[in-house]
Amino acid sequence: MRTICLYFQVHQPFRFRRYRFFDIGHDHYYYDDYSNESILHKVAEKCYLPANALMLDLIEKHGDRFKIAFSISGIAMEQFRLYEPEVLESFRKLADTGHVEFLSETYAHSLSALKDRAEFERQVKAHRELIKEHFGQDPGVFRNTELIYSDEIGSIVADMGYKAMLTEGAKHVLGWKSPNFLYCNAINPKLKLLLKNFKLSDDIAFRFSNTSWPEYPLTADKFVDWLNQTPENEEVINLFMDYETFGEHQWEETGIFDFLKALPDSVFRKSPFSFSTPSEVAKNLQVIAAANVPNPISWADEERDLTAWLGNEMQQEAFDKLYSLGEKVYATNDETIRQDFAYLQVSDHFYYMSTKFFSDGEVHSYFNPYNNPYDAFINYMNVLSDFEIRVHAASKVSVDDDIARLSKIISEKDEQLVKMEKRLAAKKRTTGTAAKKETAKKKPVAKIATAAKKRSTGTSVKTKK
Description:
By secondary structure, this protein is of the alpha/beta class. It has helices at 33-62, 74-83, 85-96, 117-135, 151-159, 171-174, 198-205, 220-228, 256-270, 278-284, 307-310, 313-323, 326-332, 335-344, 348-351, 361-366, 373-394, 399-456; strands at residues 3-10, 68-72, 100-102, 141-143, 164-168, 182-185, 192-196, 236-242, 274-275, 287-291. It has two domains: 3-291, Alpha-Beta Barrel (7-stranded beta/alpha barrel); 307-400.
């Protein structure tokens, strides 16, 4: 059996409005409704609606020979219900065909698996219920936010009853091994792993419209030729990508929809490959080995690690501060606070703070609504500060404790100002010293020139002691 597993991620965050320092304690609404609605409308028109219509046409044309899989974050589902119910209905039509699988993930597209197991399990459970409600499926395959995975995370997912999980076929994990087989978790072998073939996936998702790419233009027939060049014993090609690849990242004018439309025909006409859902791959193929992943990996950037979200001190500070509030959030029994806590966890907020300006800088700037990562950090921390005050108030923290906490914050800010003033003074002293040295260097030159002039006129020059 040789098969292709097509999987697409669907996610849109609730973006924050510009939240000023002076809003803290006064305005508890954090969201940019205009941007959220207008962006979702744009992506729906360019991607979700035409791509779903095309997928439905392909399924009707090819029947059970063509199969695909999606994971849709709970945050995206909420926005579909608010702004674009037609998109949600189009996904339901795909579900009704019986040839589309919907996977589990974290409700808030969060990084909770890295920090708080209880919160992670709460979100996965909430998302699973959402998929049952809207699509009538009880997912048996899990896909973590941004394909983040480690042996420990996989073990937790297995404990939650999932049979298989998707992740990245990272080179530094696989070494010489191929991602085109079925693997298993190193701690709990019952959890099977489907690994993304990043080369072939990224040829479509990132390189398709790059006119400087040596393989440009990419056609369906050429792509199938590449599939046929993989060794015959390699059983599955996992093509995992953002659904926004079709129409948003790669515009319709690039020919991306024509490529997608032609792909199944080319596969059936020119290759021995079929199409399978993740559940079918996990059921029909045999595990060849355990994938040892002691440190978390993801599908982001060249490093395939966590640096896109937690690679600098700003991201880590915001991340730690947010999850330090978790217990108090659930002690409040306030649904609005719990909802805001979920929205604060969306991984995009930490992505916006990335300072990776080099190899992957263009990708990070493309998705970033802020002028720079420092603006993203300041805005997020302003929101988080107001949220913290609300959590403390709702969890009945004493007034004395609240005053002490605020006093500590003010004291810390004062200390930072003192440090900055000292640094500035030191820099001025350094600059002044350098200027004096430069002046001192020039003085002997002037004296020599004066002495030479006097000698030339016959005037004696005495050295002043």
